[in-house]
Structures
1.
Amino acid sequence: MNRINQKLLENKKLLSIYFTAGFPKINDTVAIIENLEKSGVDFIEIGLPFSDPLADGPTIQASSTKALDNGMTTEVLFNQLKDIRKSVAIPLIIMGYFNPMMQYGIENFCKKCAEIGVDGLIIPDLPLNVYNDHYKTIFEKYGLINVFLITPQTSLERVQFIDKISEGFIYMVSSASVTGSQNAFGKLQDDYFKRIADLNLKSPQIVGFGISNAETFKLATKYAKGAIIGSAFVKYLDENGIADINKFVSSIID
């Protein structure tokens, strides 16, 4: 069983943390992953930086720019992760844009992920029908889960189709905007979370975008299986470096 599916079976609300590979410094990637696991995180999303990150807000955009300036590439990331399963057991997901993966070669990219021990991919700009028609068999060949995104504007028909073809969880974007931290969620978001929960989908939902602290984590997981924190953690790394990651995670789940 894929590590993502094993984790989803646990009787708890799950915390996923996103960070940008190669940020703050080029060789911080493995240390961040190891410290996040030791701190009690359930999933880790490793951001593959890209020069045109359309779904990302200013904090993650800036971290991607810095990572690229530091010299981060797909090949560098794979080299950094080649021994990651000797020290880390929790699910690892690469989140990135389709262009760098195409440049690397889709099958080569998936094969490398499988060799390293990456469990899944999140590709916001890969159209659902293109994946289903052209790449699904490649992902399945290498045991990779492709995580699909929904938003408050996603039609019921599309939500149900995504649920049908999903093998892991559904990434439930909290609002129709780019990534970024919020201090609270409003009634519209709460209604959206409940509306999706009431569909009784087979795929658990993990909420992303706008989760930044214990309060928003609790609100996001009122109906969902878990939540993802990205911008707030990237900002924390920018301001504090990687030495005290446990302090950030403890502020969310303790």
Note: The beta strands are 14-20, 43-47, 92-95, 120-122, 145-147, 149-150, 170-173, 205-208, 226-229.
2.
Amino acid sequence: MDLQAEIADWPVGSASVAVIGPQGVIDVVDDGQAHPWASVTKILTALTVLDASVEGVVDLDDEVGPPGSTLRHLLSHASGLSPDGDRIMAAPGTRRIYSNHGIDVAAHHLEQAGDQRFHDHLEERVLGLLDMSDTALVGPPAHGARGSIEDLATLAWELLRPRLLMPEVVRLVSTLAYPGLSGVLPGFGKQQHNDWGLGCEIRSDKSPHWTAPGNSPATFGHFGQSGSFIWVDRSVDLACVSLSDTAFGPWAAQVWPRLSARVLEAYS
């Protein structure tokens, strides 16, 4: 597969893409730039909080957020919080309402319970552990990371084949929480099964979607409004990541599934 040719018609100024298998990076196009990760940051934040929960610093059943909400609800967008504020739009566990604010609240809870800045937790529990030295949190925990395609590929490889992160942490981030919840997938409309783990979106039977129709329902990952994405499909032992300098829009909804289909065809 000619990865460079596959992205040549993307209507962006610059983009990087990598394909990852069991042994690491299979192929990469690297523009040499660090890009905003936008909501892909949520995976880093969730892994940090989950690592702290396994160590007992916080508990997933801690009451955080709206009445009746827990840390588990916040990480899976099931707390009922509105996308960007404290307004309560539903009872906890009844709807999947994608909430940047909910992720920030979860990070703040760890900051208070762990008695150090969230940035320090992130560095200690994820970035430093995985040697992701080109990535930093320069904004909110929900969408403020900036980094290289090399680091994003490192994260994808770890999620595909955990070596340094605790297996329970990877299981929690990628396993469906609160089954049966409907909700709106930003950019792709209402989904009857808007499945989410404790940090990662799970593909399920969503349609339309930013991955390929051939990706397994268990595929997990995230995309960001900065034109970034990461997916991990263990059924074929593959992952794919991308960063760009152009915000998400109709172009991405068109070319990302095409790229994902070609990756599956070429490497699975």
Note: The helical segments are 3-6, 41-54, 71-75, 100-114, 118-127, 149-160, 167-174, 250-267.
3.
Amino acid sequence: MDRFGRARAAADAFLAKIGTKPLVMGILNVTPDSFSDGGKFVLPESALAQARAMAQAGADVIDLGAESTRPGFTPISEEEEWARLEPVLAPLLEETALPLSIDTTKAAVARRAAVLGAAVVNDVSGLRGDPAMAELVAESGAAVVVMHHREKIDSTIDIVADMIAFFENSLALAQKAGVERRKILLDPGVGFGKTLAQNLGALAATGLLREKFALPVLIGVSRKSFLGALTGAPAEGRLAATLSANLAAFSRGADVFRVHDVAEHVAALKVWSEIDRA
């Protein structure tokens, strides 16, 4: 029996939807310290309720994270990460047909999730954090989000050139491990080691990245601090700014949008799409 059969089938179903419409990925952090919703969904019951609400609101995929990746986060062990994740992932996989994504940099956590049936590995390290991650993705048949990630801000660099070089390296790692190219999505990594100007430049380069690599692009800007720097709004007050940034990225060819506010994005992207097709 293929222990990754469920994950592979779910990944293929998710990938088949890309390009048919803008896809909304709901964020579900089962962490005590994430920058926006840390502590809200630590209990499995509250996390499951939030997942159900996002599904009802029209999410196309739900992204589960059990270790914060905010600036200054405290790393946790594989066992602690899985102990947070499994009580939500297992029952959610049984009750929903939505594909589930796992936000992790640890191959061992991704493996456990894929065995249960998780469809996507969302790796903020861009396949560079854990040397076993690319091999796990190839073996499991899961889809993978490869994110551009700089450890430190350097205002002197050309951020677009840096992203291109980073993705070329990550894609070479994926190819060497046997990851199917059709299963890869790129994420410009807004908020990860970039100045305000570089974050804006990374978003503006969405179309360039999509054209150069011929791969779908996922955008994750929901409630991030660069939006606060532009508007002065606190994290909970950045919905309008998040919508604006995502619609700008959608107009440049972005395919998937990782957000906290699912219903609002489903509506905004639907209206934009209908106008664009009129």
Note: Strands lie at 23-29, 61-65, 100-103, 120-123, 143-147, 184-187, 218-219, 256-259.
4.
Amino acid sequence: MWDRPEFLRLPDRAGKPRSAGITHVLDKGAPIAVVDGLLTTAADLVDVVKIGWGIGYLDRALKQRVAAYQRAGILVCLGGTLVEIAAAQGELTALRRWAAGEGIDALEVSNGLGWMGPGAQCALVAELAEDFTVLAEAGAKDAAAPVAAAEWADEMTADLAAGAAWVIAEGRESGTVGIYDGDGAVRVALVEDLAAAVPVERVIFEAPAKAQQAWFVRRFGADVNLGNIAPDDVLPLETLRLGLRADTAVEPTAP
């Protein structure tokens, strides 16, 4: 066990399992050696890993990948796009059986492709929550799709009531849709409206870029839940959370 130095006054951060301050990492099929490196340096900082898109369906090392993360106390989630495609093809039962066999313990439920009708996502959350931890995403992946805070908040509230552990505010890997403008700037009014309507500790804000992560830490503090974090950015994100970076550093008062 590594003993972190304790001579600086830093924000308190709970250990795992955490109920707030979640770091949700996007694994795009990284080689197992890279996974092992992440776990060696930062396993205590990672709460959820999403195996993005449909990569898990093609990954020959999936079972090994899942087992490595789970030994480190990390929840492993399949991407919502894979779940959407399986549902659209009528293969949800097969996906559930396969995912359980691979050791997957969480599924993302989304409607980013826009294929589900009204109420279908919420029903899917309730169904899958019987066997898996569910993360439910609000928002479309199409940058041209209209963004309505009230609709997002209603959807998030319904998904939480249906059994979702967390709801995700869409930002994609690019950080240029959903809660962000096309240039990556935070849609502040949207975020504030969501925070006023949905418990912030139950929302994971996708924030792939450093400037976005810093904005959320400044606005909501060290224990904001952030998602779609690249493996290489886990330690840098923690420095933002703890004020060990100029973007979020606060001048201390005299002891």
Note: The chain has a mean pLDDT of 94.
